[in-house]
Amino acid sequence: MKRSVFVLVALTLLAIGLVASVEGRGGFALSSQDKASMTEVKIDNFSFGPAALTVGVGSSVTWINRDDIPHTVVSTDDAKTFKSKVLDTDEKFSFTFTKAGTFPYFCSIHPKMTGKVIVQ
Amino acid sequence: MSRKKKDEIIYDHNNDGIDRRGFLKCMAWAGTGAFCVIQGGVLNSYALSRMPQTNEKDTMGELSFVQISDSHMGFNKAANPDVAATLKVAVDKINALPTPPEFMLHTGDISHLSKPEEFDTVDQILKGAKPTDVFYVPGEHDALNDDGKQFLKRYGKGSKGAGWYSFDKKGVHFIGLVNVMNLKAGGLGTLGHDQLEWLEDDVKHLTSSTPIVVFAHIPLWSVYPEWGWGTDDSAQALAYLKKFGSVTVLNGHIHQTLQKVEGKVTFHTAASTAFPQPQPGKADSPGPMKVPADQLRSVLGITDVGYVQGRHALAVVDSTLA
């Protein structure tokens, strides 16, 4: 009897451990994937992708130009919160968002190209 | 020279002087070249291949000049890995014209990334052209990172504001406008209040019989707003030119030749000397169009404009680099 209780407890502990470990691994993998894909904006084919990006306060966002034409990343507000130099093919620009809010931006060379970063 | 009766407008739903079939026909000119004569606001056009059959007198006036555009010096992607070579071909074409043009207009995007060495290369190549005078307006690629300061220093001597100016040649009033500065998110090209005010004042003293040639980088008519191919406040500028009997508007930016007649105004866009761009809406984006290397020069070009004094006629001739 004592032995079977021991086995049951052991199996239960093992099960909890397995679940915890699976959750832990799964959770870790998900968050790292999210972080990587959600803080990068790809510029391609005269558009920003994703056009609307949601990040947490303190996040750094990187824009990378995958187009064969130069583009810029310029915030729409008068204060020009962020403004990149011209980005030729494969060049990058990063900006860290320290305040919550919605930050619309555009390409100052091709102003029909617009996007926004939502900081929560 | 006879008018092409078959080109008369049959359906003009937008009351803009051009029907759909006519517009599509203009589109077909892209890369093949077109010769146009404007007489009292009426435009007659001929395919460049028909030029040998036209009366030479009509293209050889008292004033002729050449428009080149969109050299994009520094561009080196697949659509044209050697933009210096194609600009040199353009210069050779200009030097081979039967009547030497008096000057050249460059309607912007001289450089690709506003780098000093890119401007230097273009200057060096254009020194090989017979016409020594070149009049420039900036494209958006010439004003990157410095709000156009370098452009103004190099080409803006005697200009106002961001580089606009006017001059007279043999009775024709030329106006160079800048519509690539301070572009607003979601918007098109912009002339801005100061420039419009200057324009109103600039043409006030002119008689209505003065032929006007306006040149600017981005088209001053709505070619395809979805791709930013138009200018937000161009209607105001054109309103100031309403009294004139002959107005020709020369633009670049869209890397293909297109024409449109609206009342007494003829709009014309020039081909690029660097790389072609797709027809409006015919691709996902207006990015450089890759054509087979042996066909590239047939879609690049120069524009030769002749003026016959006394008849207020301007002839616009597109020539490809092939």
A few lines on this structure:
The complex is a heterodimer of chains A (120) and B (322). Chain A has one helix and eight strands, in the order H-E-E-E-E-E-E-E-E. Chain A is an alpha/beta fold and 120 residues long.
Biggest interface between chains:
A-B, 22 and 24 residues
Give the class of chain B from helix and strand content and strand pairing. Answer: alpha/beta
Give me the strand/helix succession of chain B.
HEEEHEHEHEEHEHEEEHEE
Number of helices of chain B: 7
Indicate the low-confidence ranges of chain B by residue numbers. 1-52
Q: Which assembly state applies to the chains in this document?
A: heterodimer
Radius of gyration of chain B: 18 Å
Provide the gyration radius of chain A in Å: 23 Å
Overall average pLDDT of chain B: 80
Question: Cα distance, first to last residue of chain A?
Answer: 56 Å
DSSP strand tally of chain B = 13
What portion of residues of chain B belong to β-strands?
A: 15-25%
Largest sheet of chain A at a glance? 4 strands, mixed
Structural class of chain A: alpha/beta
Helix content of chain B: 10-25%
